[in-house]
Design goal:
Blueprint lengths: L8 E2 H11 L14 E4 L2 E3 L1 H6 L3 E2 L1 H7 L3 E4 L1 H9 L7 H11 L4 H20 L4 H5 L3 H7 L6 H20 L1
Antiparallel strand pairs: 1-4, 2-3, 2-5
InterPro entries: Flagellar_regulator_FliZ
Protein name: Putative regulator of FliA activity
């Protein structure tokens, strides 16, 4: 026998072991209390993992690991379920985590506000060329109910800071 036989285990076992070994979100670095396993940009839930019973060896597992990510629920929601049309939500979130001293809950609040605002703009079929103009944020605010002005204005101001930072890089 010229080669060493590698023991095969079900893929689900590898995934469970991987999931339990992760302590921090791969995107924001937050300590994980509850986590989501993401493979090739798609969330893998507990039921899907249980059905992954095909036997694989360590070599195959090692080749799959770079495509796996342990994420907090917030990051998985943004990266896998969010498709913004007007705002670059992913880059904005990354900027807030990496270049500001905000706590996680504040970042989450800004991102949620921008996502809601993005959804409102889509529903209203807001013209993309109007959005791209430099004074667009005041036009957006003017079109919102008065109660929401302050809430969204703060988020838009932070987004403008992000855009200025991105232009300077």
């Amino acid at each position: 026998m010229s080669g060493i036989l590698s023991k095969k285990r079900p893929l689900s076992r590898y995934l469970k072991d991987y999931k339990h070994s992760q302590t921090h979100c791969s995107q924001c670095g937050k300590l994980l209390d509850r986590m989501v396993l993401v493979f090739r940009g798609k969330i893998i839930n507990k039921n899907a993992i249980m059905r992954m019973d095909q036997p694989i060896d360590d070599a195959i597992w090692l080749s799959l690991q770079p495509e796996l990510a342990a994420q907090c629920r917030f990051c998985s929601e943004i990266s896998c379920k969010s498709h913004a049309n007007y705002f670059d939500i992913m880059a904005f979130k990354r900027y807030l985590f990496q270049h500001t001293e905000m706590n996680h809950s504040t970042i989450r609040e800004y991102v949620v506000r921008l996502r809601r605002l993005d959804e409102m703009l889509v529903v209203r079929d807001y013209p993309a060329e109007k959005f791209a103009s430099s004074s667009c944020h005041q036009h957006i605010i003017d079109g919102l109910p008065l109660v929401a002005h302050k809430t969204y204005r703060i988020a838009l101001r932070k987004y403008e800071q992000f855009l200025a930072w991105r232009r300077s890089c």
